[in-house]
Design a protein that fits this description.
This is NAD(P)-dependent oxidoreductase. The protein is of the alpha/beta class. It contains eleven helices and 13 strands. It is globular.
């Protein structure tokens, strides 16, 4: 029984099985949390070397991308009770989502036995709000191609719920950080940039809190729902770098005006959107208490853990 008094799927008498399309950073955090609780975990990745590493950790892993669909999908997916996709859209036809384009029909067949399905999207679907607040009821007005692809993918996943009763949930993730992927790491590596764009803020989420929200949703399914996954403290990116430097006891890199910063096209595109993201729904509906409500809490914990 979980903290809410509800019975989790691992208490139903049969081991639940989670299948993950894209067993990467965020999805792996959930898989590693569920596996010790008796869950069967299987999933996909694109590289053979990574597949071997995941198999060595006790996961069943298959190769998958748009050009390499699962060779026997019905057999691979058999027995799946919970399904998660973290595979980003690639613009391919017809939906732009490689999982649905290759295996949407196979997932639909699973519907009678699926208790929960999740799709990891991004807060980029809200577009630019010039620093204003958004929540799950806000209009979806993506400002760039990546955001438009995400919205198209969300709609394709929701169509599985509407047409085939696949119990789809959408999770809109803010900027993800965690062990090996934080401002501490970029400062240590000497690659951190203190980019200053007046008024610019980003929302963030620690990878452990992503796993907390996903597990809470599994315990309290609400098909068709969308949830924002972010902390309570949207902040300017330069402020986060400065705080990481204080924690490490080093001087921060020089301030760089945004127009003068040599950023990759991908990095620069993130600055096209400026918004603050509300997270009340995960607290109200799923009973989530964030372990890291601010980047300050998250970076402090990572440093204490030596990560």
């Amino acid at each position: 029984m979980d903290a809410s008094g509800e019975h989790g799927p691992e208490e139903s008498g049969t081991a639940p099985r989670l299948f993950v399309f894209g067993l990467g950073f965020s999805a792996l955090a959930l898989a590693e949390r569920l596996k010790p609780k008796g869950w069967q975990i299987a999933g996909t990745c694109r590289e053979a070397e990574k597949a071997q590493a995941l198999q060595a950790r006790g996961f069943t892993v298959h190769r998958f991308d748009r050009d390499h669909p699962l060779p026997d999908p019905r057999a691979v997916l058999a027995g799946t009770t919970h399904l998660l996709s973290s595979v980003p859209p690639d613009g391919g036809m017809p939906s732009g989502d490689p999982v649905l384009d290759r295996h949407g029909a196979d997932i639909a067949v699973l519907a009678p036995g699926l208790a929960w399905a999740g799709y990891l999207s991004t807060t980029g679907v809200y577009g630019d709000r010039q620093g204003g607040w958004v929540d799950e009821a806000s209009a979806l007005t993506p400002s760039g191609e990546r955001g438009r692809r995400r919205l198209q993918a969300e709609q394709a996943w929701l169509a599985l719920w509407e047409r085939h009763q696949v119990p789809v949930h959408l999770f809109r993730l803010a900027g993800i950080y965690g062990p090996g992927r934080s401002a501490l790491d970029s400062v240590r590596a000497g690659t951190a940039k203190r980019v200053v764009k007046p008024g610019q803020v980003f929302s963030r989420i620690h990878v452990a809190d992503i796993a907390t929200v996903l597990e809470a949703s599994i315990m309290r399914p609400h098909p068709g729902a969308a949830y924002n996954l972010c902390d309570d403290d949207p902040a300017p990116p330069a402020e986060v770098i400065e705080h990481a430097c204080r924690l490490l006891g080093v001087e921060p890199p020089p301030a760089l005006p945004f127009d003068e910063a040599s950023l990759s096209p991908m990095a620069r595109s993130f600055y096209e959107d400026n918004k603050r993201v509300r997270n009340e729904r995960i607290k109200r509906e799923l009973g989530v208490t964030l372990a890291y409500p601010s980047y300050r809490d998250g970076l402090k914990a990572l440093l204490a853990e030596g990560k």
